[in-house]
Design brief:
4 helices; single chain; Serine Threonine Protein Phosphatase 5, Tetratricopeptide repeat; mainly alpha
Length: about 70
């Protein structure tokens, strides 16, 4: 389970995405991927903003791999 801070930032990124501020949403998620590299939710959210299929596959693969690791 993501930390409360990470969850709050994910909600902010989601809100930005819903209001079609894709550039800021993506920027926030990219920063989050550096700060929270082991959070599958961050990588899954980044996959929704992928610029191409290869990038989406990379992000989803990372999210999948992290979500199957033992806690």
């Amino acid at each position: 389970m993501a930390s409360p801070e990470c969850q709050a930032l994910l909600r902010t990124a989601n809100r930005l995405f819903r209001f079609e501020d894709l550039c800021r949403a993506r920027a926030l998620l990219e920063i989050m991927s550096d700060v929270y590299p082991d959070e599958p939710q961050v990588w899954a959210a980044l996959a929704t903003m992928a610029t191409d299929d290869a990038e989406m596959t990379t992000f989803l693969s990372r999210a999948s791999r992290l979500s199957t690791l033992p806690a």
